[in-house]
């Protein structure tokens, strides 16, 4: 039985790559297939339910790929050596991502392309918005980080740390099925991959991802309102 999460597992790596490439293909198929995102996506309970179902499916596939391997090491489910250092690096990474996002903002309207941020605040549908907020700032960051900075990073790391950082970053960006937002999402994925490598833990990556998503959603709604 395989027990060393740091050794090469080409079969599992191939399965992971096929999985994330399938997610990417589905994302772009939906984008170019004329499927429009409803303007009130954030105010629909079904949006949150669909997201939870999707992420539940993704987590199931990840566990299937990682079957019989040590999950704690493979998904980097371990505390950083120093939380103080990890939080400092997380803040540095978050600032870097915000700077890059601000630099691209005049040319790339990523929020408009994705269509998830409402253009106005609707207090009568606050319950649905809270459910959406939880899905975006808790469920999505946890599962996406376990996918890319967890399993994907661990399977790629034996081929080189920067191979893992860059490959997971590019695939993370592409998996969203967007064009305008692709540069920002790719940079995001690379920076968070760097954080994962420096801290040897997925927890700071999840925290950064959740903070970024939550801040972006709150700011967008506040400005829209």
Task: Describe the 3D structure.
It is a single chain. It contains 9 helices and no strands. By secondary structure, it is mainly α. Helices cover 71% and strands 0% of the residues.
Q: If helices are DSSP runs of H or I spanning 4 or more residues, what is the number of helices?
A: 9
Query: Main β-sheet: number of strands, strand sense, barrel status?
Result: none
Rounded average pLDDT: 90
Helix percent reads: over 70%
Helix-strand pattern: HHHHHHHHH
Beta-strand portion reads under 5%
Compute the separation of the termini in Å. 56 Å
For the secondary structure, the number of strands is: 0
Short description:
The protein is mostly helical and 225 residues long.
Could you outline the blueprint of secondary structure elements for this entry?
Elements: H1 10-32, H2 45-65, H3 71-74, H4 83-104, H5 110-114, H6 126-156, H7 161-174, H8 182-199, H9 203-224
Helix pairs in contact: 1-6, 2-6, 4-8, 4-9, 6-7, 6-9, 7-8, 8-9
Key attributes of the depicted protein:
single chain, 225 residues, mainly alpha
């Amino acid at each position: 039985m395989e027990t060393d999460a740091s050794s090469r597992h080409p079969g599992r790596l191939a399965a992971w790559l096929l999985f994330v490439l399938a997610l990417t293909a589905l994302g772009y198929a939906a984008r170019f297939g004329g499927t429009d995102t409803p303007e009130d996506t954030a105010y629909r309970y079904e949006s949150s339910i669909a997201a939870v179902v999707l992420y539940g499916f993704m987590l199931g596939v990840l566990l299937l790929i990682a079957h019989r391997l040590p999950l704690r090491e493979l998904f980097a489910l371990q505390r950083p050596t120093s939380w103080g250092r990890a939080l400092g690096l997380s803040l540095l990474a978050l600032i870097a991502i915000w700077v890059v996002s601000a630099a691209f903002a005049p040319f790339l309207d990523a929020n408009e392309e994705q269509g998830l941020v409402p253009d106005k605040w609707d207090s009568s549908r606050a319950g649905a918005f809270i459910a959406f907020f939880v899905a975006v700032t808790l469920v999505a960051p946890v599962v996406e980080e376990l996918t890319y900075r967890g399993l994907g990073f661990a399977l790629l790391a034996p081929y080189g740390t920067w191979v893992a950082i860059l490959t997971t970053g590019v695939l993370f960006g592409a998996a969203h099925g967007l064009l305008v937002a692709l540069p920002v999402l790719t940079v995001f994925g690379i920076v968070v991959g760097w954080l994962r490598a420096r801290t040897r833990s997925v927890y700071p990556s999840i925290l950064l991802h959740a903070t970024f998503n939550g801040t972006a959603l709150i700011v967008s709604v506040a400005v829209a309102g």
